[in-house]
Design goal:
With 264 residues, the protein is α/β, with parallel strands linked by helices. It has nine helices and ten strands. The protein starts with 10 loop residues before the first helix and ends in an 8-residue tail after the last strand.
Length: 264
């Protein structure tokens, strides 16, 4: 980021954070266990999903070891890790921004803060208005943030979120992920229509993202649509919101209701 402390620059630190968070516990407590865990930016429902990449499980001791390898130790006994970077002693303390649109975001942020503190990372949860949160993300003015992306059933173009140019131009690559190799892969995959060729390419990109750990991926949400039986032509679709309201027909006695003369 443009304005940030060098806390997460080492990918070992980012992986340690992922290992500190129990996604399964989050799913049970906040989602009644209904959501599906995911390992990267591709929906588990898609053929392109890289199921060869193992889910990252909670491992406190493993996370502590990675943090120590990255040079983070508690030298002053205050239960917060520290490290000298560029001649300055930094404590591992950061803000975790979340949107105030749902109480679930607050609960999840609090659970994250409690989880990482067990390894000596101090996380201050920071509730923000949606517009401010997004503006800070776009300008790369944040330490960490909690958010979600909506996907699509069609083959994806990964440029917006994962191409390094989208970081430079302040689009949606908020983390600054990317290098020449990943950019070339993203540039190529969006022109490939043959799924036998495309799928291995998308899986390779997921492997790159998995290795760098710019995100801690949680779950893919489960949606349910309820349509009253008085409506006919209730076709369902993969795309949000899952139903076209203008396609619905109001039924009367099992048949489509004809407009009355007065209505005309």
């Amino acid at each position: 980021g443009v304005e940030h402390k060098k806390l997460f620059d080492d990918k070992r630190v980012r992986r340690a954070v992922a290992m500190l968070i129990s996604v399964d516990e989050f799913n049970i407590v906040l989602n009644n266990g209904k959501n599906t865990r995911m390992v990267g930016p591709v929906s588990p429902l898609k053929k392109e999903y890289n199921s060869d990449l193992p889910l990252i499980e909670r491992d406190l001791e493993g996370a502590k070891k990675l943090l120590e390898e990255a040079g983070w130790t508690d030298t002053d006994g205050d239960n917060v890790l520290d490290k000298v970077i560029d001649g300055e002693k930094l404590s591992f303390e950061f803000d975790l921004a979340y949107m105030t649109t749902s109480v679930t975001w607050k609960d999840q942020a609090q659970m994250i803060a409690e989880a990482v503190y067990e390894a000596g990372l101090k996380c201050n949860i920071s509730p923000l208005d949606v517009a401010i949160d997004y503006d800070n993300a776009r300008k790369h003015k944040f330490g960490a943030m909690l958010a979600a992306w909506a996907g699509s059933s069609v083959p994806e173009d990964f440029t917006q979120i994962w191409h390094s140019e989208s970081w430079a131009s302040k689009v949606s690559n908020f983390t600054g992920f990317g290098n020449a190799e990943s950019d070339a892969l993203i540039d190529s995959v969006k022109y490939v229509l043959d799924m036998e060729v495309r799928i291995p390419m998308v899986k390779q990109l997921q492997e790159m993202i998995y290795d760098e750990q710019p995100y801690v991926f949680f779950t893919s949400s489960t949606r349910r649509n309820a349509i009253h039986k008085r409506f006919g032509n209730a076709d369902m679709y993969f795309e949000r919101p899952g139903v076209l309201v203008n396609n619905l027909k109001l039924l009367s006695g099992g048949s489509i209701a004809a407009p009355s003369a007065e209505a005309n």
